[in-house]
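Dear support,

We are seeing what looks like truncated structure output for some complexes. This example has two components. We would appreciate it if you could run it in full and send us the complete token output so we can diff it against ours.
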Amino acid sequence: MLAFSLAQLDFIIGDLAGNVTRMVAAARKAAADGAQIIVFTELALTGYPPGDLLGEPDFLARVDAALMKLCDASRVTPSLYWIVGTPTRRRPGKALENSLLVLKNGQLVLQCAKRVLSACGMFDERRYFVPGPDGAACLEIGGTRVGFLIGGDAWDDDGKDGSLNPLGQLATEKPDLVIVINASPSHINMRRERHACITAASRRHGFPMVYANQTGGHDQLVFDGASFVATPEGIVFEAARFEEAVTTLRLQDGTFLGVDGGALPPVPSAGLPLMEFFRRQIVLGLSDYTRRCGFSKVVVGSSGGLDSALVLALAVEALGPENVIAITLPSRFSSLGSVSDSVSLCKNLGIKLFEHPIRDLVATCEQGFNAAFGEPLKKLALENLQARVRGTVLMEYANQFGALLLATGNKSEISVGFCTLYGDTNGSLGPIGDLYKTQVIQLSRHINEAAGRELIPEAIINKPPSAELAPGQKDTDSLPPYPVLDIILKTLIEGECLCTEEQDEVRAAWAKLAETKEGTALIARVRKMIWKSEFKRRQAAPALYLRPRPLGSERRFPIAAKYEHLSSAIPAFYGGDE
Amino acid sequence: MLAFSLAQLDFIIGDLAGNVTRMVAAARKAAADGAQIIVFTELALTGYPPGDLLGEPDFLARVDAALMKLCDASRVTPSLYWIVGTPTRRRPGKALENSLLVLKNGQLVLQCAKRVLSACGMFDERRYFVPGPDGAACLEIGGTRVGFLIGGDAWDDDGKDGSLNPLGQLATEKPDLVIVINASPSHINMRRERHACITAASRRHGFPMVYANQTGGHDQLVFDGASFVATPEGIVFEAARFEEAVTTLRLQDGTFLGVDGGALPPVPSAGLPLMEFFRRQIVLGLSDYTRRCGFSKVVVGSSGGLDSALVLALAVEALGPENVIAITLPSRFSSLGSVSDSVSLCKNLGIKLFEHPIRDLVATCEQGFNAAFGEPLKKLALENLQARVRGTVLMEYANQFGALLLATGNKSEISVGFCTLYGDTNGSLGPIGDLYKTQVIQLSRHINEAAGRELIPEAIINKPPSAELAPGQKDTDSLPPYPVLDIILKTLIEGECLCTEEQDEVRAAWAKLAETKEGTALIARVRKMIWKSEFKRRQAAPALYLRPRPLGSERRFPIAAKYEHLSSAIPAFYGGDE
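Here is the complete output from our reference environment:
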């Protein structure tokens, strides 16, 4: 019988002392549960991802000191094996490795390093680490042969990355159980991918695999925990999602049981419903980001539209109504509803609403420009002016109240550049910046349903989207209807990465669009809009990542390239090999 | 005798057809010169760095088509070998390689792929490419055995990256000459590093090496050309810097000669003087960025201070006085000189100056806030307000005139967050964002000297730096004097990467500072300021890179990490192994 604890914790980046404390507390609990092993996650000591902190001159010396402290602390649970992720160096001054250490009673028992370093999507581990040496890390613990792997080393088991095959190599050692430590950010496809990949590996090699993942929000990334155990028969255990958990399990005669020897509850094959997934990920990301930046309050401009209403509702859930400040900033083009709908919304949410009209301010600005230019402001310049005056006013509220400003842009707008730089793109964080507009509507309805009452007024959900920067303006004056736009954007930006829930609908609609001349012209136009607005995304508020292909620093397009040559044809998706 | 042409061209990212045309024109010239080989640069076909364009669904199909066209075009010079960099795939749908092709008279003669992919600093090639297979690429051309390498494959010749050693492998084939194609961005240390590294390699293996590099500005990167030939005795040829050149050389009885058989002029060991280097790199980067974004004009806020004066002078050199628009935006705290010095400056530069006072606008805003808050604006909020009103006004000028706004922040300010987000950080490009304040002064003096007259008025150069956001405010109210601040910043940000010209002075001054209690307290304070302002840099104008450790997307620090635990001690620099 082997008892082991999965410590799915929220390790703070750079907080070496705090992370040691977190581990010690979890180890005490594990020991009290009778565990022989406690599994922490990838780079648990530094927090993940530490980024260029790893290159700070004294950081590694501090990591070494913290590691000594941690090793010493392992004496408090003399018979417990601590599985810990940390950066290490083979020699001072030499390259770093992303390592897994096994500590026990003040001793380093085993050390191995990650070999398949992630360099795609959100990762740039090659920037910091060199691959670990060949070899398998195995240890006999209480009569069970336990193998160890780190992150991608457990995924890549058919030698994709050059000739590396760490999992295959480990399999030759015939372990009874393999423990994989991870720091795997959450997005809509991630749970399914993890389960499929690790179950397939378990089935191929015939041993069970324990997958430990951290939790918590780190800048744009949110880690969802959801640590699990895979056997050749499937997933037999899954820890809580989006929260910390230290769970002790037993492996007894080839079966996984609870700490008390009882059967484990079945794991549902479906994860959270998509909208509930978005809600929980955004709430956690928003809450952690705000606190970790040293703030408790946020400020949000309430336009009377749906994007800001949703951001306000999510912020209230993340931080409490007393910490959310709304400001309505009507201009001469604002509809009557823009203020009154904000009033109902803020009443429903129980938050304070400031009314700060910008009519006179914009008029004063405009007069100055008319005089300076000897002609009236161009249409676009006037529209941008209003957005920027709002952005400036909102930042003053943030500064005055010591609060963070949240940006309210959604992925549809930001993708096509339907936003004003230094205006509505202002903000420390964009909670819904990776959510398409059609999903903004769905999530708003979901939030009302979950609350069992109308948090976000139906009047806001149902009004035609408008930036209200010109008389009678509607988003559809410049853009196709959002259901059509979102089909195009999902295909162009995420293509083959779309999640199962969305794939069929998107592919069918895209195929229909691509059949007609108007459809292909529209696709080409949208494509050009995406390329031409790269410069805005470079300076926009960082968005919380929710999907496999977010905008922002994970999308690395040149600004000044010659895109026009490329936008005439529509790309072939969903057909053949390429 | 072997004659070869180095085609140091400005390949535009994404402009496949244009890049083919550029290559064909250069090949015609090379053939007319009697060359047997023409050497283009790394990823010449797509432009470098193509970034995520490589992942666009139809891009690679277009690359394949362009490559067919290029191969076909090579028939115009039937006896010329074309050495071309391009992304390739071994099979459709499979991973990409960063390849070198040898084309001749419509045939693919040789193909090899880069093995040491760059993943540090400004590079993320691991994101796009897999390493090429083992092996040496050699070809007998006109009785000369020519070997081929790509970028970092020629640098890493002692097996640093795992066990890869492409140069050593190639050496076993005993080539008479090795051609290396590159796309090597320029910074203050780069020329020296390239010369040292390639000369050492040439000396170790006893063969001459030809290093071809592209030129031109691509977003924040500037490529300086300066292609060269290294022999075991040293550098025997260097092409022009910061400009295109197609140069034909002869290798005759082991000696490199000009196209006419004459001796080559000696290559000076020193490069451009530091200030002249900055001037040329900024002017090229600024000019290329503006044109490639589809603009001809720029707008710059002229504060009467030195940063904006220098940006204006550089913009005039890059784009011509008719394309540069200055705006002075005096507030109630502006000194008298802020307008009058701007007037003299713009007169000297021959550019139009708008005067757009913001006094009343700020006062109107302030009244609104006082009423809303029931208390006066906090000091910082009022200072930020002025900066943001200026940022908004400047963007209106840019929008109205169809011009790009240039940001005027320097590296010292941006490093410590001494700037207002959505205010003076606004801009499409920051031409001096990688230049420390003390160097802003030096470069300004250099520009006057080079012009032989006072382009930037001495009154501006000599006035104490001030943001003029509060009565009588000086930068030294919040910051140490810039010479001290810059010593600290250079050490903390660039440490061991400092260029030779700066090293001794910086190290000596740092050591002196670190001796005293006040000095160490100051260092800790500055360090904290750097960490705490990461969020501003994430949304600031992209800066032109000039140094090995620029700010911006090449500095990947988390925003919400726990830095405070780390800032109490000063890091140990310049001593021992670490």
